[in-house]
Amino acid sequence: MKKLILVFVSGLFTFFLSACTSVRVNHIDESHKIDKICIEENNAVIFNEFIDSITNRIEYHGIKTILFAKEHKPLGCDYTLWYTALRSWDFSPYLSHAELKLYKNNQLIGEATYHLNGGGGLSLSKWASVSTKMNPVVDELLNKKMR
Questions:
Q1: Which domain of life is it from (predicted)?
Q2: pLDDT band at 129, cuts 50/70/90?
Q3: Of 33, 101, 128, 145, whose CB neighbour count within 10 A is largest?
Q4: What is the pLDDT of residues 35-49, one digit of tens each?
Q5: Where are the domains of the chain?
């Protein structure tokens, strides 16, 4: 009986330590030659680090970004990015969920989701920076290799 309890407790402990990150990406086709992405500002995402990380990573690949309010989309924006992000709290805030959707002329051409299963559990990686979490997601969405 003691052995069964020990196995159960050990399995439970392992489960909580191995917080699983789920990343799903439907990257854009290589035929898209993007030089500018207009990003629709989402006022529900209240931490600036998120949008700064996303725009910095897109620009890292030589693509210009323009942030705009929903009602004021600039002319000539063939490519538009929509995003949302959620924070969780465990002693300090951390990114627990994010979605990116990339459109060409209102047609979805790529999307990505980042999600910490179980809120990150006891894993210390849940407190990693937004850039650390989202850079590979943006790279994959844009179908770009990391340099």
A1: Bacteria
A2: confident
A3: 101
A4: 999 999 999 998 889
A5: 22-141
* Average pLDDT along the chain: 82
Query: Tokens 């850079």 — which residue?
Result: 135
How is domain 22-141 classified at the CATH fold level?
A: Double Stranded RNA Binding Domain (3.30.160)
pTM here is 0.80
Render the burial of 7-24: b for 16+ CB within 10 Å, e for the rest.
eeeeeeeeeeeebeeeee
List, in sequence order, every beta strand (DSSP E) within 2-146: 21-26, 36-40, 64-68, 79-90, 92-104, 107-116
How many CB atoms neighbour CB 80 within 10 A?
Answer: 18
Residue carrying the six token digits 């994959």: 140
Whole-angstrom Cα distance, residue 83 to residue 41? 8
Per the listing, tokens 């620009």 go with: 59
Specify whether the CB–CB gap between 59 and 99 falls below 8 A. no
